[in-house]
Amino acid sequence: MLKAQLATTIAFVMCCSSVQAETTAKATCEPTAEGSRNLVVSFYTQALIDKQVRAAFDTYVSPDFVEHKPDVPNGSRSAVVDFLEGLVTELPGARWEILRTVAEKDLVFLHARFSPAPGAPPYAIADVFRVDNCAIVEHWDVVGPPRDGMPNKNSRF
Fold it and tell me: Cα–Cα distance between 40 and 129 in angstroms, integer?
């Protein structure tokens, strides 16, 4: 059994790098709510916190990915990559921070803080990802921009 796993691993290494990255991510993913949470946190960290958008999509996101964000034309995977890479280029000092996560069945909820520049007021972000077969297949978000004079003194974070 161990020799078979080793042979399989060697065969995967000989494949192209993006296939290898995807295979590695899927091999380490557990098809559970907690496994999906770990996958989404790894994706979010690489794509937005580390600002390696394309590499994160190559590793964690299905080719058939569907985006529901209204700012992204046609909701395709390639459109999201272009949108996020443009955002990272336009706002080089931007910072994303994961505050909390919740995972249930095939859905992962992420509550995040987005600061477009050092010292800028933060946005509150709620992201929802659907995971299938250890790949992100769908995404929704709600973005709350900064507000002046908030009547509620409880923070959104």
Answer: 7
